[in-house]
Predict the 3D structure of the following.
Amino acid sequence: MGNGRRYARCGCSARTAAFRKMKCSRGRLRRQQADLHVKQPPAQQRGQRIKDCLVGVMWEGDCVFTQQQLSSILSSLPDPAFILTRSGRYAAIFGGKDSRHYHDGSALVGLSMFDVLKEEKAAWFAAEIEKALESGVLHIVEYELSGSDVKGAGDGPDYTIWFEGRVQALSFPVDGEAAVVWVASNITEKNEVQRKLRQLSETDALTGLYNRRKLIETLDRRLEIFAREKTPTSVLVFDLDNFKRLNDEMGHQTGDAALVEIARLCRQHLRQNDVIARFGGDEFVVVMPETRRGDALQIAERLRENVPIVLRESLRYESTISGGVSEFGQPDRLSSDILKRADEGLYLSKRAGRNRVSAL
């Protein structure tokens, strides 16, 4: 109240006096910035002018922060925010204060992405910028960067870093070009946690093979491919003969060791694109993409011949496996259809005396 009366006696309102004070503050800030520009290289001077301009745009209107405070807020952002033009030039960079994940990127200002990154990676960024400009809405992408993406040896990390980019078109040109603000968030740790959780949800704890859930997912995907492209896929189901007797005579620890040895043997003898899973207990399933039933039977026979040798050498125990093989066919609509057929082949082998593989 007292201040209001004093301003009234001077013939001006409190709002007018505050506006005059802000104009003086802006004048001092511009003189400080001018001194700073003299000490900077030309490219960084230009980048600083663009930053000042952008802050000025944000400062206009009824704002509770001074221009200097807004500049400080933007510089304190944990994630870096790049102002990128349509041609791929780094016009300005704000933030990136989280030193655990980011290095100082101020040297990029004034350069083109095509000067910094390999052609393929720079072209990818340019395409994403164009998508954001064309849509006018928030564009979100996940991408990876490593040392191999950067021009010049030693300029980038020797490991892969994952980022989430949030890209938004600006409503005004920057140096005569359409431009976007690209906020890059380091999500490497989050992706690693998600990868480990996904691995736990898909993997059998004892053998390290895929579990039942992942097996069904794989079969469903292969069935879709078969329905669309008629690509052959065969499935082998097998188990250890007299597994209960092994557990009773040698103990469950030895039984577990036998399952681990069989898993190791499968990894060693089966092909890289074959999907191996522990279905439950001592039962295993192998999905063989692009494989006819006859070829799958030969692969299964080689596995059957090697299992007794491995168990004899590692556990000093004599045991064999029995199995059943089947191939995707036109009547199959569900993954359970082929599993049932291969399982019937397994029990056919059991009834025929064990230690054999039957094809249906």
About this structure: The chain has a mean pLDDT of 84. Strands lie at 80-85, 90-95, 139-145, 161-169, 179-186, 233-240, 275-280, 283-289, 321-327, 357-359. The two ends are 96 Å apart (CA to CA).
